[in-house]
Amino acid sequence: MRPAAVIILAAGKGTRMKSPLPKVLHPLAGKSLLERAIIAAQALDPRVLGVVVRHERDMVVEHLSQVAPNAIPLDQDEIPGTGRALACALEQLQDKDYNLDGPVVVTSGDVPLLSGKTLQNFVAAHEAANATVSVAGARLADPTGYGRLVEEDGKLVAIVEHADATEEQRQIDLINAGIYVFDGRFALEALQKLGSDNAQGEVYLTDLVGIATESGLPAQSYLIADTWEVTGCNDPQQLAELEAEYYRRHPQEQDSVNAIDAGMPVKENK
Length: 270
What we know:
transferase; nucleotidyltransferase; glucosamine-1-phosphate N-acetyltransferase activity; Nucleotide-diphossugar_trans
């Protein structure tokens, strides 16, 4: 099924980048982090593609108009948290009369190596399981700082942020990759139930898993084995590491960059 919407979260400040440029506008191999997220999302051919904006809104919206003129900027208010970001996005799409029946995919503007093929496989698994909520996960040798996917009898029952996790839960190595598929109607209703009574004082999108479980609705995790695809960019060092990995996977692009830097003509593939 064609997704009802793909929502890219791109409202954060990116303080650790230590730059006046919004994090999602930093370039990686010639394209912004946001543009790379958009390219992956477009592989799903959603009915609508929305980008949640707040920090340096006008700068991000201007860039969006250049790289994806059909994408819709969606404003997050002053209430912090990913749950609030999605609530604002879906409410605005509903106000614009978009039909949100069907899968709603949520991804991030700072995960540049995520591929369209992986997103397609993720949505297909969500539909095959007839799930209400699907959460992408990855296994890390050191999961410190990440939210943990808590499963019982093979079923996803909760996502616990690291700051809120018990010592036992912190031993779980299956982490939340921050990519989700929700039934659109469920998300619209469940988001209204979220609060901010947690260690961060934010509205957690991850609490939708618990709401689904309490309602007897199916939730599942989906393992992405290639951890590079779900690695986020939070500081200049991570950006450099992600770019190096991108060029390792696309050496022909590195060759073109080197040729341009050296003032050599670049041979076109025909």
